[in-house]
Amino acid sequence: MSRSIAYTSSPLLASPTPVWRSKFIVAAIALGFAGLVGRAVYIQVIENEFFQKQGEVRFARTLALPANRGRILDRNGVILASSIPVPSIWAIPEDVPRDPAGLKKLAKLLDMTAAELNKKLEDEDKTFVWLKRQVDESVGNDIAALGLKGIYQRKEYKRQYPEGEAAAHVVGFTNVEDKGQEGMELTFNKELGGKNGSRRVIKDRMGRVVEDVREQINPVDGRDLQLSIDSKVQFFAYQTLKAAVLEHKAKAGSVVVLDVQTGEVLALANYPSYVPDKRQNLSGAQLRNRALTDTFEPGSTMKPFVIGEALDKGLVTPLTPIQTAPGRMNIGSATISDSHAHGVLTVNEVIQKSSNIGTVKIAMQMPPREMWELYSKLGFGQKPVLPFPGVVSGRLRPYKSWRPVEQATMSYGYGISVSLFQLAHAYTIFGRDGDLVPVTMFKMNERAVGTPVIAGRHAKAVRHMLHLVTIPGGTAQKAQTMGYSVGGKTGTAHKVEGRGYADKKYRGVFAGLAPIDAPRIAVAVMIDEPSNGKYFGGDVAAPVFSQTVQQTLKVLGLAPDMTVIPQIVTDTEEESF
Amino acid sequence: MMRLNLVLLLGVVLSGLYLVNVQYESRRLYSELDRAQSQAQRLATENERLQVEKRAQATSARVERLAKSQLQMRAATPAITTYVVYPQSVGAPVQASPSGRDASAVQGRLP
């Protein structure tokens, strides 16, 4: 029974091939495996990082998560500025078909000529050309509907300013990159801006996100900014101012409305202004936030401060008689005069009639240092603490360099320069207990604590004088407003030009308070170069004051403090206001 | 032994298929979530846009223009306003005046 084969001795199996061949095969296979192991080690261990990265590049994407720029709101939460995404149109010139009809339609939608569009598209080496950034949503849709090849859209944030030109100087504007350029937008660019986030994701071949690679970095949205501005007050102030500037053919004008109790800025408007989201052909004149950046000689509006200080120092009482005849007075070689000669006036009447002589006579009883300290305490010569770019300090020279005539002229507002905002701010002392309230651009809810300048009863006495200015016998009866008692002081100053005063260029100013017995607001108005016949502050600025006070107190919900004769509405006759 | 191996093989194959399925499902759900999130984002910005648009339609400037031109309205003056004082704030905004003005008078016809 030998079915089994004796392998070792079978002649058939006696290998004719040499032994090294089988050994060679084994070695070759072993080498192959070694090669694979080596490659595996190379990929998985040595160059692992590189290959991981290369792999990731092919399917992982980093998505930017843009942060929203904070909104700017008024005191009632009304939007003054907000960013919304709008389409921007771009193109790859090489891919755009040279089809005149289609391009013509596109040019029309983009609001440019066909030649301008062709110029943008002529360089075919470029792979990215902006055609127009930040177009309207509807334009974007129309362009998409054209279906032109090589034309693409991208979403960009654009700032919208619903209040338009009325609040332009307060709010400011951002550039095309959504960075603040002016006003609050510039000052609080960082707070409003926020921080962009990002996320790393894996996308499939359809471009869908299927997985997050690492923790997502959330965007930090910009903070909303709530201002003390009341959009209604701001609008009325701007509109009244605009009407007055146009009526008197003036160069410019400004108006400031402050809440006397809290120090909040309720409105701050300048004319000429601009529409913040349409800024083509902007001029410097339109951009100027005059109420804060332009200084001028305040003229007679300074008199109440000097009188207040004199009362406070006990130099005079409201009824002290002052001889102002004959309406001229010499100090050194200079002559000071009143435009109308008055006789003996009480201190009350010095303010009511705006007598330069009377004011100078009172002021000259004070040492220069006292007057300088008064003006300094009122904030003149110092920058108002307001978060605006380009706020100026005005000019108040040190008292040691004052000559007597300079002290005299300074008492009625010449030889010193202030901004309209400083003037409005200083007037708040008469609306309070003689203390200067710190101003703020942000919403406050309580009465602010001020720094004392004069005693409360003297502030009240000056308030009464300011009221006298607006009633028959005073210089600013046009400041009266229906239902509310007001008080204020006019100022008319020659404009400085070169080294002297311009002959027929004036500035009409009015600063005042309302309601006069328990003031809520301080309003200052400045009309620059009125050239339509009238130029006195009482004629050009006081009516703006009157209307602004009327509207503001109504918006604030204050009941009138004066008797008004009720009128029953019987017809629909148009009334201008 | 053989049977056990078969069972284990089957187990491996099934669990492998299940894994593929779960992975697919998870990616599908994730992309759906992502789409929903970006839609939420889109709706939020749309909401913001509409709010701004609403505000732009309701600015004082526009309201006044329409009120004057289309509705023939005019600005209310104190003479044609009825003031109603809430009981808790009587006297608060209005103070007696020394100059003889009738300060507390509420003008107009009270209902």
Question: Would you mind describing this structure in some detail?
Answer:
The complex is a heterodimer of chains A (577) and B (111). With 577 residues, chain A is an alpha+beta fold. Chain A folds into two domains: 64-226, Penicillin-binding protein 2a (Domain 2); 231-276 and 288-556, Beta-lactamase, CATH 3.40.710. Chain A has 20 helices and 21 strands. In chain A, 44% of the residues are buried. Chain B has 111 residues and is mainly α. Chain B has helices spanning 2-57, 60-69. Chain B is rod-shaped and about 105 Å long. Chains A and B meet through strand 3, strand 7, helix 9 and helix 20 of A and helix 1 and helix 2 of B.
SSE arrangement:
The complex is a heterodimer of chains A (577) and B (111).
Chain A: H1 19-46, H2 48-59, E1 60-65, E2 72-73, E3 79-91, H3 100-109, H4 114-121, E4 129-132, H5 137-146, E5 151-160, H6 168-171, H7 183-187, H8 189-193, E6 197-203, E7 209-212, E8 225-226, H9 231-247, E9 252-259, E10 265-271, H10 284-287, H11 290-293, E11 295-296, H12 303-312, E12 321-323, E13 328-331, E14 334-337, E15 344-346, H13 347-353, H14 356-363, H15 368-377, H16 404-411, E16 418-419, H17 420-431, E17 435-436, E18 451-452, H18 456-470, E19 487-497, E20 500-514, E21 521-528, H19 537-540, H20 542-556
Parallel strand pairs in A: 2-8
Antiparallel strand pairs in A: 1-6, 2-3, 3-4, 3-5, 6-7, 9-10, 9-21, 11-16, 12-15, 13-14, 17-18, 19-20, 20-21
Chain B: H1 2-57, H2 60-69
